Amino acid sequence: MRHVDPDTLALLALGEKVADSDAPEHLAQCDECSAELTHFSRAVSAGRSTLDAGELVEPAPRVWTRISDELGLAAEPQPAPVIELAPRRRWVPVVGIAASVALVASVGLTAWGITRPTPAIVLASATLDSFPNWPDATGKAVVEESTDGTRVVQVSFDAPGLGDEYTEVWLISSDATRLVSLGTVAGSRGTLTIPAGVDLSIYDLVDVSAEPYDGDPAHSGDSILRGRLA
After folding, report:
1. Could you report the per-residue pLDDT of 147-193, keeping only the tens digit for each?
2. What is the domain range of residue 134?
3. The domain boundary residue, chosen from 80, 115, 150
4. What HEC string does the chain produce?
5. Which of 115, 147, 178 delimits the end of a domain?
């Protein structure tokens, strides 16, 4: 019985059209060729499963070092001994290629898992309550810390009636006697870095103020929203 050519099997596994019109009928009757096609199809599925893994980045050299250590690979590849094989399984080279695709896909996913960014930790949050002059204002604040120790406060708010003023975000002490400006916000949301020396157990009030363009860096006294971090 003439078996299906391995190149044809590989194309079928990829979903491509083939010139051999007898291949489907042969596969329906030949368990050997059908099994080979199944092996190819699994390798193709493994390779294609990485398409939804997100954008891959070029890993640092340390990533490949860790992969080599885990797989027990030698630092310097040694020549493999040559072993003569019986001239039988003509599809072995194609299976090797398909297996290589699966291995590369697996290594790619491993590298992506090692190098993907670690999410920041939420340290505190606050609901921002409006002041009497801004009855319709609403907002919230979230403090996050990244793996390198940098802290930021993310604010989002809605302040109907805001005119020519700009908004500035502050951290204020519990007794309202000390304050630190974190910066201005363009629009209704912003992310601002908290200085390293600021103790949030003391400066635990987040304040959003309306500031006139008068060149004065001090707080205007016109707070739109304020809330205590918890």
Report:
1. 888 999 999 999 998 988 999 999 999 998 999 999 999 888 999 99
2. 121-228
3. 115
4. CCCCCHHHHHHHHCCCCCCCCCHHHHHHHCHHHHHHHHHHHHHHHHHHHHHHCCCCCCCCHHHHHHHHHHHCCCCCCCCCCCCCCCCCCCCHHHHHHHHHHHHHHHHHHHHHHHHCCCCCEEEEEEEEEECCCCCCCEEEEEEEECCCCCEEEEEEEECCCCCCCEEEEEEECCCCCCEEEEEEECCCEEEEECCCCCCCCCCCEEEEEEECCCCCCCCCCCEEEEEECC
5. 115
